[in-house]
């Protein structure tokens, strides 16, 4: 797991382990970046199914409840099967754009 800090955003990149192992690692290290927006970059891993992405649901909901963004980057999943409660985008740039929009919404009180 590679952790990169970019302003108030933590980018977590995974290259080798399974999604379940990654979720456990992120949960264990969560206090380190709980006050930042989080991007989980999964483009280097294989193909994903809905159940893989749903593994992040609890972590995503917890993080969003604390008024921070949680975005998954993967171009290897059919976005039509992803639940609406989890934000998944195909590129890192789109993840940054989503965070920027959500920051503006929070600033406006939405």
CATH homologous superfamily classification: STAS domain
Structural class based on helices, strands and sheet pairing:
alpha/beta
Q: What kind of assembly state do the chains in view correspond to?
A: single chain
From the N-terminal CA to the C-terminal CA, the straight-line distance is: 33 Å
**Main β-sheet description:** 5 strands, mixed
Q: How would you sum up the global shape?
A: globular
CATH class: Alpha Beta
Write structural notes for this entry.
With 110 residues, the chain is an alpha/beta fold. It has one domain: 2-Layer Sandwich (Transcription Regulator spoIIAA), CATH 3.30.750. Helix content is 42%, strand content 20%. It contains four helices and five strands. It has helices at 19-33, 50-54, 57-65, 92-108; strands at 2-6, 9-13, 37-41, 70-73, 87-89. It has a five-stranded mixed β-sheet. Strand 1 (2-6) and strand 2 form a beta hairpin. The longest helix has 17 residues, at 92-108.
Outline:
The chain contains four helices and five strands.
What is the strand and helix layout of this fold?
Blueprint: E1 2-6, E2 9-13, H1 19-33, E3 37-41, H2 50-54, H3 57-65, E4 70-73, E5 87-89, H4 92-108
Parallel strand pairs: 2-3, 3-4, 4-5
Antiparallel strand pairs: 1-2
